[in-house]
């Protein structure tokens, strides 16, 4: 039994493993077509092409998309399905895609564009079918079937200028409302609307809606304006204007106006009257206006006024009169009727002052008669005035005064000078002319009592003459000022400084400075200064363009940089370039230095020659070396005895043992050993020990040691140490060798021996040493010896 079940399970697994399929293609279609009229049915078909390995069922999941948004999800065992739209609208226009999913596999169709053409006819509604002039009419237009955004266009039909349109866009609603004012004169209003929609796939517009009719009711009639007695009147006539209107229980306002001037008004009445006595100024158009809220109706008539008499004319002798002349005025009037009243007046700031109640006026002119004059005439209650006439009476100008601001005696060339000219008397405006000599420089007109101001820039050095002239509208008089003399001075130009000699001067000698300017007015102040020193070395004021300074004796401290400053009464200081002066040695100082250097060279040359000769002579003689240790003082600075060491202790057996040893040697030696040869002598001078006390200057002790040996006899060697007392070398040199003193005198240049021998053998040795010392103490060696420290015995 178990074996049978196992076989069945294995068979089922093998069958299930063979259920293989693949989605070949997904196709999407539109029925009836890709372009559908608005309102028609639209079906979207989705078909899946699937290949299978056997006859088994597969569950299909269909998903419809429009413009990337999911429209519907359908699950079916069939390989096709559909999405139905009963009435297609413009909102259904777009790109459609179908996706099929089976188990873990899925595939999409290609994009299909579907267009819905046209829009349904919108519906227009007026909230009121009867309105009054000036009222706001509300209209509503809607397309219930479509989805926003929509654009609505309202049209007002049968208007004189053609349809009046208004457009409104709705983004979230499929309807809109507008308010349209009812204009005066409208009787029956006709409206219609059109809907349109815009998208990325195009634009569609609906057919116009049905026409909506609205009746307009007048709140009042158009007013009537009547002028009594007639439209043609004469100046002085009394005229009545009457405005009437028919009204239906409304609180209206009636206004009568001429041009923009309101003459009369009333409210709540249907009649308005205006009375006036007309003149020529009343000629023109008159309007009656009736208003209620935003509704306004008017009526205009033209009234013609005939002139009764002309405007009077004021005749004058002249507009500009000299003071003292006659002022004559006369008023003339042209007309058919006699003049009732005539007057001559003055007008100031809108206020009239009566001069005379007649047609003429005459007086002797004075400056106070300067004014604006008019004349008036009256006939039959109509008053007219002439055009105003401005008459000016001019008093003559006085002699003007000319001065400089600020007041100065001299002016600088090239700088502007400020002048003022004023005439104390005279009727303005006063015209001033400014002269340099006889040449007009400038002119100015002053309308008040202030002085005229002029500026001028002199171009030449010297004395300039200036004057000014004053005049006004007086017919005869011109006055000229006295001449004003101005001295024009020039500032100093470029400053130059030279020196003789240039740049260098010997110590103790003198130098001249010449400072001069190229241009400038006299007198000129010159200053000679040293750099970084404010105090002038020399200062002079000259009536000349140059100055010369001389300083006799110069020293090294006078070396430095010098410059010159120049100025004149313009107080403008100019500075020259800086020159450098170097004080050098005098000729005799140079010769003295040369002689000193020459002497040094000669001394060094002689020394070199002597050293060379000494070296040459030393090479020809046997080599003698002297060795010595300079035990001069001990650490306490105490002079030591010959037998003391640096610590002040005696050498044991230094002299006695030596003498005994030598004596024993002499006794043991035979005659053949009495005379021995000295092979060499060595002298050494050692430097002081730096750790000991300082060596005394002047006299220094030197110990010398002479060793004699007979090179022929190896068996009988002996040595004798002879320690001498201190040898001191100052003006002469004294050497103690083998108990004998050898004194060298530089003047004699010879050695003198003072025998102090105690033994004959030693003295015989001294004789032989004398011969050797003659070669040792040559003149060249003596100079070298002088540099060594010696000490007297």
From TrEMBL:
Signal peptide: 1-17
GO molecular function, one term: transmembrane signaling receptor activity
Keywords recorded for this protein, A-Z: Cell adhesion, Cell junction, Cell membrane, Disulfide bond, Glycoprotein, Immunoglobulin domain, Membrane, Phosphoprotein, Repeat, Signal, Transmembrane, Transmembrane helix
Recorded GO CC terms: anchoring junction; external side of plasma membrane; membrane raft
Subcellular location: Cell junction; Cell membrane; Membrane raft
Membrane topology: Single-pass type I membrane protein
PROSITE patterns: IG_LIKE
Keyword Repressor: no
Domain Ig-like, residue spans: 24-109, 223-302, 312-392, 400-485, 491-580
A single BP term in Gene Ontology: cell-cell adhesion via plasma-membrane adhesion molecules
Record field: transmembrane: 591-614
Official protein name in the record: Platelet endothelial cell adhesion molecule
UniProt source species: Alligator sinensis
């Amino acid at each position: 039994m178990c074996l049978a079940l196992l076989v069945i399970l294995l068979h089922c697994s093998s069958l299930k493993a063979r259920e293989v399929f693949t989605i070949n293609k997904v196709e999407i279609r539109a029925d009836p077509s890709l372009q559908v009229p608005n309102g028609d049915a639209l079906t979207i078909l989705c078909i899946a092409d699937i290949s299978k390995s056997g006859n088994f069922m597969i569950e299909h999941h269909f998903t419809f998309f429009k413009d990337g948004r999911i429209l519907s999800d359908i699950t079916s065992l069939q390989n096709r399905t559909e999405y139905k739209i009963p009435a297609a609208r413009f909102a259904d226009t777009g790109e459609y895609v179908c996706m099929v999913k089976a188990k873990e596999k899925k595939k999409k169709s290609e994009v299909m564009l579907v267009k819905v053409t046209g829009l349904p006819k919108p519906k227009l509604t007026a909230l009121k079918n009867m309105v009054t002039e000036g009222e706001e009419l509300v209209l509503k237009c809607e397309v219930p079937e479509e989805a926003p955004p929509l654009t609505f266009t309202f049209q007002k039909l049968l208007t004189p200028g053609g349809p009046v349109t208004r457009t409104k866009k709705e983004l979230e609603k499929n309807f809109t409302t507008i308010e349209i004012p009812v204009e005066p004169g409208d009787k029956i209003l006709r409206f219609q609307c059109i809907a349109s929609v815009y998208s990325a796939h195009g634009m569609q517009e609906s057919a116009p809606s049905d026409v909506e009719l609205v009746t307009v009711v007048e709140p009042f009639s158009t007013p009537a304006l009547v002028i009594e007695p007639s439209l043609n009147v004469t100046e002085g006539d009394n005229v009545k204007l009457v405005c009437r209107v028919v009204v239906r229980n409304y609180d209206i306002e009636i206004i009568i106006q001429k041009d923009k001037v309101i003459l009369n008004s009333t409210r709540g009445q249907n009649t308005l009257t205006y009375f006036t006595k007309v003149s020529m100024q009343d000629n023109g158009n008159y309007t009656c206006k009736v208003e209620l809220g935003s509704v306004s109706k008017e009526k205009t008539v033209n009234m013609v006024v005939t002139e009764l008499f002309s405007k009077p004319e004021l005749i004058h002798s002249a507009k500009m009169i000299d003071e003292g002349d006659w002022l004559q005025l006369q008023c003339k009037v042209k007309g058919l009727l006699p003049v009732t009243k005539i007057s001559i007046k003055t007008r100031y700031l809108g206020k009239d002052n009566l001069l005379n109640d007649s047609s003429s006026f005459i007086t002797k002119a004075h400056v106070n008669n300067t004014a604006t004059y008019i004349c008036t005439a009256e006939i039959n209650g109509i008053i007219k005035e002439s055009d105003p006439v401005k008459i000016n009476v001019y008093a003559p100008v006085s002699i003007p005064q000319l001065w400089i601001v600020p007041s100065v005696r001299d002016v600088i060339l090239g700088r502007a000078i400020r002048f003022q000219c004023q005439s104390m008397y005279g009727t303005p405006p006063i015209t001033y002319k400014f002269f340099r000599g006889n040449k007009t420089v400038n002119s100015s007109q002053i309308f008040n009592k202030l002085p005229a101001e002029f500026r001028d820039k002199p171009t030449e050095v010297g004395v300039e003459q200036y004057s000014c002239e004053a005049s006004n509208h007086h017919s005869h008089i011109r006055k000229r000022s006295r001449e004003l003399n101005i001295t024009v001075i020039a500032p100093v130009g470029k400053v130059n400084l030279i020196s003789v000699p240039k740049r260098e001067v010997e110590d103790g000698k003198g130098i001249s400075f010449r400072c001069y300017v190229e241009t400038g007015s006299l007198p000129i102040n010159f200053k000679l200064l040293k750099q970084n020193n404010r105090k002038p070395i020399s200062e002079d004021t000259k009536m000349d363009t140059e100055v010369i300074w001389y300083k006799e004796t110069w020293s090294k401290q006078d070396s430095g940089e010098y410059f010159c400053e120049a100025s004149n009464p313009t107080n403008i200081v100019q500075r020259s370039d800086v020159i450098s002066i170097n004080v050098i040695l005098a000729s005799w100082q140079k010769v003295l230095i040369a002689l000193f250097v020459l002497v040094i060279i000669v001394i060094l040359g002689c020394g070199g020659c002597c050293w060379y000769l000494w070296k040459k002579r030393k090479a020809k003689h046997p080599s003698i070396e002297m060795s010595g240790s300079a035990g001069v003082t001990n650490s306490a600075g105490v002079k030591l005895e010959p037998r003391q060491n640096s610590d002040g202790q005696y050498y044991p057996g230094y002299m006695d043992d030596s003498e005994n040893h030598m004596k024993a040697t002499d006794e043991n030696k035979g005659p053949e050993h009495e005379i021995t040869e000295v092979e060499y002598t060595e002298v050494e001078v050692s430097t002081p020990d730096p750790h000991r006390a300082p060596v005394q200057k002047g006299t220094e002790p030197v110990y010398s040691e002479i060793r004699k040996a007979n090179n022929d006899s190896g068996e009988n060697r002996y040595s004798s140490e002879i320690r001498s007392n201190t040898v001191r070398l100052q003006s002469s040199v004294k050497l103690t060798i083998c108990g004998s003193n050898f004194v060298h005198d530089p003047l004699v240049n010879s050695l003198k021996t003072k025998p102090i021998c105690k033994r004959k053998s030693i003295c015989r040795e001294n004789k032989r040493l004398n011969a050797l010392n003659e070669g040792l103490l040559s003149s060249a060696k003596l100079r070298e010896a002088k540099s060594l420290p010696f000490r007297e015995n």
